[in-house]
Structures are given as C-alpha cells and as structure tokens.
Amino acid sequence: MEDLFTNEIVRAENLKKTFTLSRKQQRLEKTSETRKVAVNGLSFSANRGEIYGLLGPNGAGKTTTLRMLSTLIKPDEGDAYIMGHSMRKEPQKVRDCVGFLTGELKLETFFTPDYLFDFFGAMHGVEKETLVKRKRELFARFGIDAFSQVKVGDLSTGMKQKVSLVISIVHDPDVVIFDEPTNGLDVLTAKVVTDFLAELKRMGKSVLLSTHIFSLVEKLCDRVGIIIDGKMVEEGPLEGVCGEKSLEEKFFELYRGLKGEIV
Ligand SMILES: Nc1ncnc2c1ncn2[C@@H]1O[C@H](COP(=O)(O)OP(=O)(O)OP(=O)(O)O)[C@@H](O)[C@H]1O
Ligand SMILES: [Mg+2]
Questions:
Q1: Is 63 in the pocket of ligand 1 (CB under 6 A)?
Q2: Span from the CA of 216 to the centroid of ligand 1 (angstroms)
Q3: Residue 223 three-state SS
Q4: What's the pLDDT score for residue 255?
Q5: For residues 193 and 238, what is the distance between their CA atoms, to the nearest angstrom?
Q6: Is residue 36 within 6 Å of ligand 1 at its C-beta?
Q7: Residues 6+ apart with CB under 8 A from 192
Q8: Mapping DSSP to helix (H, G, I), strand (E, B) and coil, where does residue 257 land?
Q9: Can you give the pLDDT at residue 189?
Q10: Which atom of ligand 1 is nearest the CA belonging to 179?
Q11: Is 237 a residue whose pLDDT tops 90?
Q12: What is the distance, to the nearest Å, from the Cα of residue 46 to the centroid of all Cα atoms in its chain?
C-alpha cells in the first residue's frame, strides 16, 4: 500500500477551470458566451520516474491544466496532489517540488548562464554550497561548461534552450512539468530537449509534458492522457491506450466518436 501511494507523484482530481471572456476574446473566439470552460472535471495520475504525456488538440485545456498543477492559476473545483502535497492547501510545497518549463520562457540576454543559474538558485532559496555543486554537475552533464561565461544573447537557440532547461531544475525538483517542449524548435534543438527529458527520467525525475505531437508521445512517454474539450477521454500506459493501433489512429477514433467527422 505504501509503495502504491509513493509511486504516484501527481494526482489530479476533478480539476475544473472556467474563464470569463472579455469582449475582445468573445470576438476572437466568435462567440457571444461570456464564459469558457477550459478544463472540465479532469482527473489523472502520473507515476514516479515516468514521462507522462498530455495529448490534445489546440484549445483542449492542456496549458490551463499544467498552469493549475504548477500553482500559477487556481482551479474553480477539484485539487491536485504533487508528491502528496495539495496544490490548494500547500502551494509553496508544490512549487518546491515542481520545475515548470514553458516554450515561451525568455532568458535575459545580457547575462551569462553562470550568472542566471546562481540568480534563479538564490530565488528558490538553494544554499550556496549546494548551488555550486549542482551547477558543476548540471553544466557538465548537459554540456554548458563550454559557454557558461558567454552572454545568453550570443548563444544559439539550442544552447539557450539547454540553459533554460537546467535553470528550471536548479532547485532539484522531483517533478518537471513542460508545456509543449518542442514547439517552434528545429529538429536539432528539439533533439536537445527530447534528449534532456529522457536524461531527466534516467536521473529518476518524473516528467509531465503536454503536446499535440503523436510521435513525441510515442517516442518518450510511458503513459498518455488524451484531452479533448477539457476532459480526459482516455488514459493509461501507452500500449494499453493504443492496443494494436498507432496513437494517431486511436486519437482520431476517439475524436470522431465525440465530435463526428473532422472537417
Ligand atoms: N486566460 C484565459 N482567458 C480566457 N480564455 C482562456 C484563457 N486561457 C485559456 N482560455 C481558453 O481555454 C481553452 C483551453 O485553452 P488552453 O490554452 O488550456 O488549451 P491548450 O490545450 O493548451 O491549446 P494549445 O494547443 O493551443 O496550446 C481555449 O478555448 C482557450 O481559448
Ligand atoms: Mg497550450
């Protein structure tokens, strides 16, 4: 029983989030509705040492779900437990064990990776000695030593991405949450990221990512949750969800079943 409990590193229970739409958003979404249900009673769990992929089309509620799990926004209903800590009741404890990465993270170009690592480490309250040790290990492991004293503005996209990635785990979180990890990246930089995620798993971390890329889930993930219209429509180990089908076939089967033919 104990093992079963500690193996579950993320447990989301009936998460719900509704946004109030501004006039501008109503125009953009071509709707007269003033409210939009982004996440509609979502439950799932992710296990220790695994990579979990939240797969869903645009607007399915992936980013909203991950932002709730990272305590950036509050759910209207439901709760999630990260390493057993309630996101509602113990948000700081959740923040301490989560590293949140978004593709849109932009690093300050004037500073060096070395400086930024120290800065974010101090922000997370990492002790100086521990920080020095972590920097040494992570910079060596991910090949950052060679450019640790170069200003971020002078680095390639792939190098910058590596820096963002190590910064997100500066406080040694057990869980790494990554929204659309390879969005907008070329194949080389995307590989930097996918290799990094696989390496995090080898290091014993648990990864929760969102994506609409089937091949990324098939390549990297142990478990998958398929989200459509803010609801989890299928969830489980990759082989269990797909059976004899490819993930793409399975997704379209589910999608058609819910929404009819794709136009
Ligand atoms: N702050 C907000 N205000 C109003 N509506 C929002 C807000 N954030 C998200 N939404 C709406 O909620 C729904 C879910 O959005 P979300 O960003 O979570 O989807 P997603 O699965 O991440 O999509 P994508 O693949 O495009 O990133 C969408 O219809 C979106 O327009
Ligand atoms: Mg999104």
A1: yes
A2: 21
A3: strand
A4: 93
A5: 21
A6: yes
A7: 158, 161, 162
A8: helix
A9: 83
A10: 22
A11: yes
A12: 12
User: 91 C-alpha to center of ligand 1: Å?
Assistant: 22
Q: Given the structure tokens 């990579």, which residue do they identify?
A: 51
**CA 154 to ligand 2 centroid distance, Å:** 29
Q: Is any ligand 1 atom within 6 A of the Cβ of residue 19?
A: yes
Residue nearest to atom 24 of ligand 1 (CA): 58
Residue nearest to atom 25 of ligand 1 (CA): 58
Nearest to 193 by CA among 167, 154, 221, 164: 164
Summarize pLDDT for 138-193 with one digit per residue, the tens: 999 889 999 999 999 999 988 998 899 899 999 999 999 999 988 878 888 888 88
Q: Which ligand is nearest to the CA of 40?
A: 1
List the one residue out of 113, 119, 194, 196 whose CA is nearest residue 149. 113
Asked whether the predicted pLDDT for residue 263 surpasses 80, the reply is no
Cβ(212) – ligand 1 distance below 6 Å: yes
What is the pTM (predicted TM-score) of this model?
Answer: 0.90
**How high is the pLDDT of residue 186?**
86
The architecture CATH gives domain 2-259: 3-Layer(aba) Sandwich (3.40)
Percent of the chain at pLDDT exceeding 90: 76
pLDDT tens-digit readout, 211-227 = 999 999 999 999 999 99
Q: Structural domain boundaries of the chain?
A: 2-259
Question: Mean pLDDT score of the chain, rounded to an integer?
Answer: 91
The protein residue whose alpha carbon is closest to atom 17 in ligand 1 is: 63
SS3 at position 96: helix
Decide: 20 and 34 in contact? Cβ < 8 Å.
Answer: yes
